[in-house]
Amino acid sequence: MDGATRYYAAFRDGNGVQQEAEIPREVYMALDACRLVEKRQTNEFERHWERFALSEAQLTARMLRPPLSMEEAVAQTADMQSALAALTDTQRRRFLLHNEHELNYQQIAIVEGCSVRAVEYSVAAAKATLKKYFLE
What we know:
- The protein has 136 residues and is mainly alpha-helical.
- It has 6 helices and 2 strands.
- It has a two-stranded antiparallel ribbon with strand order 1-2.
- The chain is globular, with a radius of gyration of 19 Å.
């Protein structure tokens, strides 16, 4: 309506009625980050863990790492957003296509209309910048 991007969360309430609520961008980004983490964990489990029996030590280690609270997830998302802001637009876009959307370098090169080497260079530069950001 006013040209601004709006973010919504859809859910079923306690009575099973579908609801939709407008939420702030930060909350949307935190929820999206949680969704991606859950997807990665599910994929990891399907690819790796279900093929092996977990040892008692592994089960204990899993229990000792409690899941992140919503506040911690939002803080981590805010940190990552700040780190991503340090990248150029091209680096950020290619880094996210590779890491969040799981495209390989060749697929990104096709989308971007550039060479595979250019994508490799951009992603490597982005990783170096992010590593430097989080080590400081």
